[in-house]
């Protein structure tokens, strides 16, 4: 038995049984150990950003971390953007980054790099393994950190720590510490603040507080006090649909967000951050609440967020109060759009035909900005989205979600420009035969950047600006790209064509891509 075997066994005894990987030479002993552990599912990504994005999507749906396998510092550098997104979603993840053997580092070989410094900005926990016997303790620490911080952890595995022998040992699951609870006095103070401010108060949620039961409890608290309810602008996972809380999230455009929050004088944050603009704009505020708003952080990420919501609702005497904001079911199916296809019609068709208990992975960016609001009364589903703003996560998120939930249909809403960052994820969908319908919003431009140029006061675009913002010279051919990676695909230019293709994709298993030309 060697250090790599101990690594696999420590992961498996703690129920980490999926590894998304893009290995290299330094990790060959880990690959060999994985080959000896059939209970570990190994999923290959052709780019490291696919690997970490898929691990993010997996953990959001599985409520436990996956492992990743990355090759030295440059391999991890390719993975950093989606590590950033996972960090912003507070996603548990265990990255195993291979490195040169400890005694080889002195030679400054071409792949030598400062992995710790690369990892720290995107990781909540970083640990270099010191020896083969140190492998088990390091992985245990990373596992605990991933679920209690919670978030992205990175463990650096020198090659000789993987190949050197270790003594056999009986492994047991690590006991996780209890999540932190909010003290009763703070709960009483916040309850009093909600009663005092009534309709000019609001509760803002994220993380595990956006599951069905805690959302409903929060909505009971709001019904008892008259307070409003919001989620953050970007969240790891929301349980949505008819019969659940129609949870409004903060708008991306600053003016819309300011209007949402203009009447809030008392804001209670449960896991959430103070709402701010995604970017700074000339003449507009960075914070989205007015200067006189009192902000109370009741619980932070890593605290017991559902327990905090339950305790607050109990303090308000509202546990039996009928919840506010429950989305009603649709009385009848809306009429499906017809004619030339545009982004709004795509969103309308998808929200109308969304299947029960599906998973929506949303990186539609500007094209699908209103899609979330269209789905309040859709059949019940889980919604996961781009969180940190580092585009290129949508296709990998769908990979991870489908691996975590193989019996559920995954609907990926994907902008074309950001989809090109990690298009290799389609190959993984084909290889694993994942049940994903990918909808490409093919406007052949970085449409969001057109809007951002106008937002900073530039309304006339010259040749150079158009070259940097448009994708039409040549136009991307998503059907050919998807088919080249083994995914069936078709193109729609009318609403009728899109409806037919989307219905057909929902009625079959396996990956399918629709290029919606808008």
Describe the structure.
The protein is of the alpha/beta class. The chain has 3 domains: 3-163, Thiamin diphosphate (ThDP)-binding fold, Pyr/PP domains (Rossmann fold, 3-Layer(aba) Sandwich), CATH 3.40.50.970; 184-327, Rossmann fold; 343-517, Thiamin diphosphate (ThDP)-binding fold, Pyr/PP domains (Rossmann fold), CATH 3.40.50.970. It has 20 helices and 17 strands. The chain has a 7-stranded mixed β-sheet, with helices on both faces. Strand 7 (201-205), helix 9 and strand 8 (228-231) form a beta-alpha-beta unit. The mean pLDDT is 96.
Strands, count:
17
CATH architecture of the largest domain: 3-Layer(aba) Sandwich
Q: According to CATH, what is the class of the largest domain?
A: Alpha Beta
Q: Kindly report the average pLDDT value.
A: 96
Cα-atom radius of gyration: 24 Å
Low-confidence residue ranges: none
Query: Biggest β-sheet: count, sense, barrel?
Result: 7 strands, mixed
- Helix coverage percent of residues? 25-40%
Instruction: Tell me the overall shape.
Output: globular
The count of helical stretches stands at: 20
Which structural category do the helix and sheet elements fall into? alpha/beta
| Strand portion | 15-25%
Under CATH, the topology of the largest domain is which?
Answer: Rossmann fold
Counted up, domains total 3
Q: Distance N terminus to C terminus?
A: 56 Å
What is the CATH superfamily of the largest domain? Thiamin diphosphate (ThDP)-binding fold, Pyr/PP domains
Family: Belongs to the TPP enzyme family.
Keywords: Thiamine pyrophosphate
GO molecular function: acetolactate synthase activity; flavin adenine dinucleotide binding; thiamine pyrophosphate binding
Protein name: Acetolactate synthase-1/2/3 large subunit
């Amino acid at each position: 038995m060697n250090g790599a075997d101990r690594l696999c066994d420590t992961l498996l005894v703690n129920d980490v049984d999926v590894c998304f990987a893009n290995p290299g030479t330094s990790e060959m002993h880990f690959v060999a150990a994985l080959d000896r552990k059939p209970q570990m599912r190994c999923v290959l990504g052709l780019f490291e950003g696919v690997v970490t994005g898929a691990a993010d999507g997996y953990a959001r749906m599985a409520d436990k971390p996956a492992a990743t396998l990355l090759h030295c510092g440059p391999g991890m550098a390719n993975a950093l953007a989606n590590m950033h997104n996972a960090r912003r979603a507070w996603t548990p993840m265990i990255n195993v980054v291979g490195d040169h053997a400890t005694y080889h580092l002195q030679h400054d070989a071409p792949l030598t790099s400062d992995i710790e410094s690369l990892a720290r900005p995107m990781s909540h926990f970083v640990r270099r393994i010191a020896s083969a016997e140190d492998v088990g303790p390091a992985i245990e620490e990373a596992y605990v950190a991933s679920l209690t911080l919670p978030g992205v952890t990175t463990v650096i595995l020198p090659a000789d720590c993987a190949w050197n022998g270790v003594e056999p040992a009986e492994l047991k699951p690590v006991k996780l510490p209890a999540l932190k609870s909010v003290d009763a006095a703070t709960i009483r103070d916040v309850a009093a603040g909600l009663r005092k401010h009534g309709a000019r108060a609001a509760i803002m949620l994220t993380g595990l507080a956006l599951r069905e039961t805690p959302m409903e409890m929060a909505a009971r608290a709001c019904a008892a006090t008259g307070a409003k309810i919001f989620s953050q602008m970007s969240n790891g996972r929301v349980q949505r649909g008819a019969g659940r809380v129609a949870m409004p999230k903060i708008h991306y455009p600053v003016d819309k967000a300011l209007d949402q929050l203009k009447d809030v004088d008392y804001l209670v944050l449960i896991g959430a951050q103070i709402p701010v603009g995604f970017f700074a704009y000339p003449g507009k505020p960075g914070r989205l609440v007015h200067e006189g708003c009192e902000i109370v952080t009741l619980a932070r990420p890593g605290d017991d967020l559902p327990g905090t919501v339950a305790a607050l609702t109990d303090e308000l005497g509202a546990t039996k109060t009928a919840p506010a904001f429950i989305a009603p079911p649709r009385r009848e199916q809306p009429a499906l759009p017809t004619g030339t296809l545009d982004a709004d019609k795509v969103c309308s068709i998808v929200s109308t035909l969304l299947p029960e208990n599906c998973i929506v992975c949303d990186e539609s960016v500007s094209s699908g900005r209103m899609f979330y609001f269209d789905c309040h009364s859709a059949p019940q589903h889980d919604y996961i989205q781009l969180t940190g703003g580092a585009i290129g996560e949508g296709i990998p998120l769908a990979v991870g979600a489908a691996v975590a939930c193989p019996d559920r249909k995954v609907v990926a809403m994907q902008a074309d420009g950001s989809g090109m960052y990690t298009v290799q994820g389609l190959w993984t969908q084909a290889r694993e035969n994942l049940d994903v319908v990918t909808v490409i919003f093919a406007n052949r431009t970085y449409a969001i950047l057109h809007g951002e140029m106008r937002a900073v006061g530039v309304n006339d675009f010259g040749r150079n600006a158009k070259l940097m913002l448009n994708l039409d010279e040549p136009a991307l051919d998503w059907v050919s790209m998807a088919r080249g990676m083994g995914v069936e695909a078709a193109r729609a230019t009318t609403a009728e064509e899109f409806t037919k293709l989307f219905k057909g994709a929902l009625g079959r298993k396996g990956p399918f891509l629709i290029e919606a030309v808008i």
